[in-house]
Write a structure and sequence with these properties.
This protein is mainly alpha-helical and 224 residues long. The protein is 83% helix and 0% strand. Helix 1 packs antiparallel against helix 2, helix 2 packs antiparallel against helix 3 and helix 4 runs antiparallel to helix 5.
């Protein structure tokens, strides 16, 4: 066998080794990317479920609820394309049914009172998570500017409302116990929360309502 043939064979072996290595690395990169994307989708789905299940129903109107469920279904659809899993299909059917129910139901869900500081903080935290989610949806062009702005203004109102609602709950409890000055103080706290977003008409309406309660309680307290 001539030196030329041997050289060609060696070159072919080297090139073959490089090709095998390249294919192997490409497959490994594809595998890692698939795992990364799968984990990211699982994380997104868990966040969607927290928003839809853990935020008290009075803080999510039907429009937001539908939007969250739409994104949850979209996430599960992407996951099912990457991974064959019965639980993904089960969750997909469950969310599709939930979306259908929300669209067909006319009555507002029964509110769940926020009765302590820890619960109020958790609700605010979840609403802030929803706020950031809307911002990402806008950045990714999943929501247009007008719709996303409307949602963000409303969610910002809800964050203040969740804190104000806790003060209102405390005020009502104090009123029932005959602690009128404590009740008045808590209504003032609710007003302070809403004043932060006083440019919002919903906040103005809430402030007027709280101040009416304060006036009523002050009149009773003065008589006593």
């Amino acid at each position: 066998m001539s030196a030329t043939v041997i050289t060609i064979i060696i070159i072919l072996i080297i090139l073959g080794s490089i090709a095998v290595l390249f294919i192997s690395q490409s497959r490994e990169k594809a595998r890692i990317e698939k795992v990364r994307k799968t984990n990211a989708l699982h994380d997104r789905y868990r966040r969607m479920q927290r928003l839809i299940n853990e935020i008290p129903p009075q803080y999510l109107n039907n429009e937001l609820r539908i939007m969250i469920l739409d994104r949850s279904i979209e996430t599960l659809t992407e996951l099912s394309a990457l991974k064959s899993d019965a639980s993904i299909q089960s969750n997909l059917v469950k969310d599709q049914q939930a979306l259908k129910t929300v669209k067909e139901t006319k009555e507002a869900p029964k509110p769940i009172p926020v009765k302590d500081e820890a619960s109020a903080k958790e609700v605010s935290k979840l609403l802030e998570l929803l706020y950031r989610f809307i911002e990402r949806q806008r950045a990714n062009k999943k929501l247009d500017q007008t719709t996303s702005k409307k949602y963000l203004v409303y969610i910002n109102y809800l964050i203040s409302k969740a804190r104000a609602d806790l003060s209102v709950t405390k005020a009502k409890e104090a009123n029932k116990s005959g602690k009128l000055r404590v009740a008045i103080h808590n209504y003032h706290n609710a007003v302070s929360e809403m004043i932060k977003i006083k440019e919002n008409p919903l906040a103005v309406k809430a402030i007027n309502s709280y101040r009416a309660q304060i006036k009523q309680l002050e009149d009773i307290a003065d008589k006593e």
